């Protein structure tokens, strides 16, 4: 029985990670498309959600679309991650953020070094983890597995 669980566990984690990644990018593109419409941008850039080179300015609509869509994605994804994985939101959130950083680097063929982009990733990830873990606790507090600290 235990060997069956050990084989099944990594598959479930990988399946949940794929689902969370797909949820993240679906929400990211939907949020970016909504920002495109609301902010009346000139052209829809399919690489827009991965743009870290746009100079930050509150009057730059392209920057606002990128920022708003990214932060909205982190918040909405945290709610959806709770429904998918129920707990360990911080782990899935951090892993999806690393995947996003990797994809962004590959799409732009350059590692992001812009401080404003890293700040938006950090703020969004913090909001995702905090909101997701609080929501998961309130929804599933009777199902949480608490570690036995006496073994440590």
Automatic annotation (TrEMBL):
<dbReference type="InterPro" id="IPR019185">
    <property type="entry name" value="Integral_membrane_SYS1-rel"/>
</dbReference>
<keyword id="KW-0472">Membrane</keyword>
<dbReference type="GO" id="GO:0016020">
    <property type="term" value="C:membrane"/>
</dbReference>
<dbReference type="Pfam" id="PF09801">
    <property type="entry name" value="SYS1"/>
</dbReference>
<feature type="transmembrane region" description="Helical">
    <location>
        <begin position="92"/>
        <end position="111"/>
    </location>
</feature>
<feature type="transmembrane region" description="Helical">
    <location>
        <begin position="117"/>
        <end position="140"/>
    </location>
</feature>
<keyword id="KW-1133">Transmembrane helix</keyword>
<keyword id="KW-0812">Transmembrane</keyword>
<feature type="transmembrane region" description="Helical">
    <location>
        <begin position="63"/>
        <end position="85"/>
    </location>
</feature>
<protein>
    <recommendedName>
        <fullName>Transmembrane protein 244</fullName>
    </recommendedName>
</protein>
<feature type="transmembrane region" description="Helical">
    <location>
        <begin position="12"/>
        <end position="39"/>
    </location>
</feature>
